[in-house]
Amino acid sequence: MTAGKSREGFCLGIESTADDFGVGIATFQGDILANVSDGYIPETGGIHPREAARHHAEVADSVLAQALSQAKMKPKDLTAIAFAQGPGLGPCLRTGATVARALASYLGVPLVGVNHSVGHIEIGKLQTGAKDPLTLYVSGGNTMVTAFASGRYRVFGETLDIALGNCLDVFAREAGLKNQKGLPLGAAVEQLAAKGKRLVPLPYVVKGMDLSLSGLLTAAVTALQKGAFSLEDVCYSLQEHAFSMVTEVTERALAHTEKREVLLTGGVAANRRLQAMLDIIAGEHDASFSVVPQRFASDNGAMIAWAGVLAYTHGLSVPVEESFVRVRWRVDKVDVPWVKQP
Predict the structure, then answer these.
(1) Cys-Cys link to 302, which of 35, 230, 235, 281 (CB 3.0-4.6 A)?
(2) Predicted pLDDT at 5
(3) Rounded Cα distance, 271 and 293, in Å
């Protein structure tokens, strides 16, 4: 089979950049046959990279077996193995890469390294039908506004410190909320925010096309600890300030690029208040607005599998001996030859 020419095949993708170990299987035509994940939940505090990596190693066999069963396939049916090569937490990335290298070597199929951020953008485009969107990608590890130009996804604005998802998660832990299966901390904040009525004054920091969330987080935690405001009101105010900041940067980029589509992707994309804000600014610029489906919003193997298909069918693969992980691999350093300039 020749890379760049094949029209039929199956790619298995492995996601392991942070707290989730996921495996997805995609056809070369864009059908998602399987998408299975197992998340690491720390007993206290945030993600401990080595503990998360240990979790990934322990569940890898089971998640792989579930994905193959869900797709009704055997390993010998696979055409290529893709893995999240970066950015992410080093120990977690290396665990996923090790599994991918072993599979590719055993099966004698190509290995494809995928940029995690590109995976989020491409699964959003695949699932919504967006062709050339301005994309707001918001998660626990990333907050950026991107759009395609001159062969790559360019960054038009991003956080200068912590990511939006991390901001919400840290606040939730400081407020005493617990991480639960099926209810991420960000979703718990959203539920409480829906009951808030009073807007607490908090920092609003947009610097040019970038934004800063660390001061907002500190101020929100301080406001809660002083006891002058209810938890619901602080959650509401935190969301209103943070979402207004990312929406402002997105609108500026939309005005600059004149794109006709706005796409929201990443784990925080599930938040309905953020969706509503972006829908308004898209409409004001005569652009359509779409959101990645919730089952593909958080980190998942399907997005790595699909981005792996796009890369492999355009001649991109990596020798096992050169498949080192890239902890700080920026999205604007990745060529995307499958995207054509409109």
Answers:
(1) 35
(2) 40
(3) 11
Q: What is the C-alpha end-to-end distance of the chain, expressed in Å?
A: 30
Q: What is the pLDDT of residue 293?
A: 97
Residue 161 DSSP code = S
Q: Which of 233, 171, 221, 228 is nearest to 196 (CA)?
A: 233
The encoded tokens of residue 225 equal 């600890």
| DSSP code, position 9 | -
| Pair 214, 224: CB distance under 8 Å | no
Q: How far is CA 293 from its chain centroid?
A: 12
| Residue that has been written with the tokens 């992707």 in this structure | 265
How much is the mean pLDDT over the chain?
95
What length is written for the chain? Answer: 342
Tokens 């197992």, residue located? 38
Check the CA dihedral 273-276-281-287 and report its sign. positive
- DSSP string covering 34-87: EEEEEE---SSSS--HHHHHHHHHHHHHHHHHHHHHHHT--GGG--EEEEEEES
As given in the structure block, the two tokens for residue 233 are: 């009101």
State if pTM tops 0.90: yes
What is the dihedral angle through the alpha carbons of 300, 301, 307, 313, rounded to the nearest 10 degrees? -170
Tokens read off for 65: 């077996």
Under a CB-based contact definition with an 8 Å cutoff, are residues 22 and 61 in contact? no
